[in-house]
Amino acid sequence: MTRKSPRGFMKLGAFFHPTGNHVAAWMDESAQIDAGQNPEHYQSIAQTAERGKFDLMFLADAVATRDGDLNALSRWPQYMAFFEPTTLLSSIASVTSRIGLVSTATTSYNEPYNVARIFASLDHISHGRAGWNVVTSGNVSEAYNFSRDEHYEHGVRYERAEDFAEVVRGLWDSWEDDAFVRDRSQGRYFTPEKLHFLNHKSKHFSVRGPLNVARSPQGHPVLFLASASEPGKELAARIGEGIFSPLHSLEAAQAFYKDLKGRMPKFGRDPEHLKVMPGLNVIPGRTEKEARDKFEHLTSLIHPDVGVELLSDAVDGFDLRGYPIDGPLPEAVDATETKASTGHFRNVVRWARQEKLTIRQLYQRFAGARGQRSLIGTPQQIVDDMERWFLNYGVDGFLIQPSTLPGGLDDIVAMVIPELQERGLFRTEYEGPTLRDNLGLPRPKNRHVN
Ligand SMILES: Cc1cc2nc3c(=O)[nH]c(=O)nc-3n(C[C@H](O)[C@H](O)[C@H](O)COP(=O)(O)O)c2cc1C
Questions:
Q1: Could you tell me if 68 and 314 are in contact, meaning their C-beta atoms sit under 8 angstroms apart?
Q2: d(CA 56, CA 337)
Q3: Which residue, judged by its Cα, is nearest atom 29 of ligand 1?
Q4: Which atom of ligand 1 is nearest to the CA of 154?
């Protein structure tokens, strides 16, 4: 009989940045160097993740290249040229059969009809494995590609996102599940009463409907968010079924978990129906030293121009180019701190002053984690930590970010997954054919059916 922990199984996603999560991943000899433009690479890593029984794979997205110093960008090519993710997921659907296929689509630079249609189609094509990560975009460079000079203000973004998701969910209920009778004897293809117009009118959208795609296998593709702000958390509690927001300590995770799930009853929702799955960098080794050496090797591959660019971003754009790389962080940086400065800003300044780290040491420390938590060690050490977070209700699972691809994922599937399974923390077989089956989420009822 399969072992199960007292809390059952955790949920696991695999976050696939093209060459891997580490900024210098593409420089590692084991990484697929042209990953962003190589469909077979993605098909192959999706199959590996499916072998590891991951609930889902996730692709991030932006509707722009990254902006910044071109010299530094040319040494850190991630997300400069990469596939539109739902197109890519359609190709992955045909070479996998169980793993969930999740990607981002922004509510700021799309129309809800298009997004409803795309994800409903992906849900049909994958036989019930599609998920949509609802983001509002944080990046002004996307605005420039959509006839705007500036990005929507944060509050407006979330107002639009809420409205947008409402329209999408309404469109997904356009057809009742049994609307298509396809009856040659009666000469009737669908039942007219089982088709519903949306007739949505609000501040941001006017959408008549109906959607030109039949209700999809999951009813609605699964909805994810990665928000951290107050309006983001409210939206997650209202409609989210998975959330990827970063969490750095067990105490903070427990507070976030309680806060978020505590908001759900007022929307008539069961707290079990939103899975908290923060990002986690995982670098396993057969010994702790082997794992550390892998990480140190990647760190040594960060080009100083990339490191300085990353660090400049972290300190609110203070241009650190031209300062001696093995010298201190200039005193002038401290004075630029404002109320709006990020947690990254404060961390970097603190490390610089308290530990007297140089610019090089600062970017090496900062770049390693990329804003997410890291676990580097033996499979036992890594799983001890994951188990503690899961059994103590800090999380429902994790969004695992392999440092390099395909090698970092191969290591995780070979070393970490068996250790999780051995302890009854993770499945050895998929529970069912759809993403909802595996995440333990209900299939939404059509709003037009009692
Ligand atoms: C794991 C993870 C994945 C994300 N993926 C994307 C993405 O693909 N595209 C995007 O524009 N933002 C992405 N974000 C950013 C979030 O959607 C969100 O905008 C950000 O965390 C700030 O949240 P807030 O706007 O609620 O403050 C991601 C964040 C996390 C933690």
A1: no
A2: 39
A3: 226
A4: 25
Distance 355 CA to ligand 1 centre (A): 31
DSSP-assigned states of every residue in 70-103: HHHHTTS-TTTS---HHHHHHHHHTT-SSSEEEE
Q: Is the CB of 135 under 6 A from ligand 1?
A: yes
- Amino acid of residue 272: E
Per-residue pLDDT tens over the stretch 223-277: 999 998 999 999 999 999 999 999 989 999 999 999 999 999 999 999 999 999 9
User: For ligand 1, what atom is nearest to the CA of residue 15?
Assistant: 1
Ligand 1 contacts CB of residue 62 (under 6 A): yes
Q: Which CATH superfamily is domain 11-147+220-286+378-439 in?
A: Luciferase-like domain (3.20.20.30)
Work out the pLDDT band at 370, boundaries 50, 70, 90: low
Spatial CA neighbour of 128 closest among 428, 447, 438: 438
**Atom 10 in ligand 1: which residue has the minimum CA distance?**
137
Candidate of 17, 84, 104 to mutate for ligand 1, largest count of ligand atoms within 8 Å of Cβ: 104
Q: Are 179 and 190 in contact (CB under 8 A)?
A: yes
| Domain spans in the chain, listed from the N-terminal domain onward | 11-147+220-286+378-439, 302-368
Cα 363 from Cα 344, distance rounded (Å) = 11
Distance from residue 227's CA to the centre of ligand 1 (Å): 6
Kind and range of the H or E run holding 190:
strand 188-190
Evaluate: CB of 137 within 6 angstroms of ligand 1. Answer: yes
Judged on CB neighbours under 10 Å (0-12, 13-18, 19+), 263 is middle
C-alpha pair distances (Å), 276 with each of 10, 17, 259, 321, 441: 10, 20, 11, 39, 13
Asked if 99 contacts 56 with a C-beta cutoff of 8 angstroms, the reply is yes
